[in-house]
Amino acid sequence: KYAIQTACRCGDFPMDRKIVDVNELHVEDIPIVGGKGANLGELTNAGFPVPEAFVLTTFSYDYFVNNGKLMPEVEKKLAGIDRTSDDSLTQASEEIRAIFEECAIPDDLKKEIVSKYRLLVPKGKVGFVAVRSSATAEDLPDASFAGQQETYLNVKDEADLFDKIRKCWSSLFTARAIAYREKQGYSHSDVKLAVVVQRMVNSEFSGTMFTVDPNSGAKQIVIEGGYGLGEAIVGGEVTPDTYIVDKQKMEVVKKRISTQTWKYVRGKEGGVEKKDMPSDMVKAQKIPDSRIQEIAEIGRQIEIHYEKPMDMEWCIEDDKVYIVQARPITATGNSAINESVGTAVSSEDILSNGLGASPGLATGKVILYDISMSLDAVKEGDILVTMPDMVPAMSRAAGIVTDEGGMTCHAAIISRELGTPCVVGTGNATEVLKDGMEVTVDGTTGTVYKGTLRKAEPEAAAAGSACVCAEYVPITGTKVMVNMSMPAKADEIAKLQCDGVGLMRSEFLFTNYIGEHPCAVIEEGRTDELIDKLAEG
Description:
Blueprint: H1 2-10, E1 19-21, H2 30-45, E2 53-56, H3 58-68, H4 71-79, H5 86-101, H6 107-120, E3 129-135, E4 151-155, H7 158-170, H8 175-184, E5 193-199, E6 205-210, E7 220-227, H9 231-234, E8 241-246, E9 251-256, E10 262-266, E11 272-276, H10 289-306, E12 310-317, E13 320-328, E14 350-353, E15 355-358, E16 361-368, E17 383-385, H11 391-394, E18 399-401, H12 410-418, E19 422-424, H13 429-432, E20 438-442, E21 447-450, H14 458-465, E22 482-484, H15 490-494, E23 501-504, H16 506-514, H17 518-523, H18 527-536
Parallel strand pairs: 16-17, 17-18, 18-19, 22-23
Antiparallel strand pairs: 1-2, 2-5, 3-4, 3-5, 6-7, 6-12, 7-8, 8-9, 10-11, 12-13, 14-21, 15-19, 16-20, 20-21
Helix pairs in contact: 4-5, 5-7
């Protein structure tokens, strides 16, 4: 079906169409505008709040690459990589990116870019755009490629725009992108890159949203939010607030309020810079419940539109919510089938607590990683304790633990795709965990234990020490309700993946719960007893 739709949709665009407006696009256009561009077009045409944008298609990418005769040199660099060395990978990436960034954009393409750019920012007006990579293998149903390519915020003028477009094209060959494609079995030559140029939303608040719980697969909406521009959250540089929304009642049923001491804001000359938060806002709830419910409803409607669980990025400017990215969820944990230590462990064994971002159990020796170290220092089976987003090393690690980050940061998403247990947002892992220390990472509960611990026994799990995960259920616009008849079955029925109780058969309360005819009970003078029993049922 996808192949047929793609063939039909691609026919709508001439083969030399280098730039298209986002409102001309639909999800079937991934081959020419990448996952990000196609999904933004789909959302725009479905009426969701998306900032205005245009997209440099993959034809633009090919035109630039072919005009500069770049690929023979790129292929030579790729062929020379030592696959056993991350240092070799990093060096090749830097050399390939330099090839792209030193090549001039053809003049005719520059002219077309400026023409579209001036529709977003008219000449003589002050305005900023975001320049965002959109790869053809990105945001697909089976692989997210989250954080693989680069985004540039608050791009201020034409010269800056040309520079950032070249940098986006070159980011197709970051070290982590090359490593991820090889890990997932994607050919480097088959992946192309489009570039989204979008009106910059100067976010006061921003965050991410999953329409199912990414750790357990449970049928609830998970929203993470914080102050300022969203790059700090998706990059795992801060730990956001986490809000759990019941998908049936659309109510906030659980929240985890984090500490945020700084935020990203627009720099004086464009780009981003850090700004300290006032002391009274550092530990406060970032987003009011009413706003979380509004965001959750937008997410629920997007899920219904796509007919599948979705992962989104949102932001707020001038009291209006915008959706700046949406993609199908490519991997969720399942804590019902993943190992967990459970609860039968002494609190003295707990070294650190955070958010369970990718379920499962892993034991190994700690390696504290920082950016000054070679990625080759991370060995097979290590427990990687680091700032998030070190993707090449993540594929060798048995478990991942981070100080900052939420369940929807890039590191968490990639961990779930790799099936690697991951705990994020501990706040203190790099302080309490030491190099060489033997630890156990429980990605189901978000706990790091000292030593080697075994998973919970089946009887312990049955007693409630392990999470229970719901099976996948198709998304429907109409709520699917249960017909309830027997109070004794309430606990059992509550575990089904229904949207609530649609009908409760009161006559069955008498026949199988009270067990007596109401008229007979009343005649015997036991009216209060009947009312109490009926209410209890």
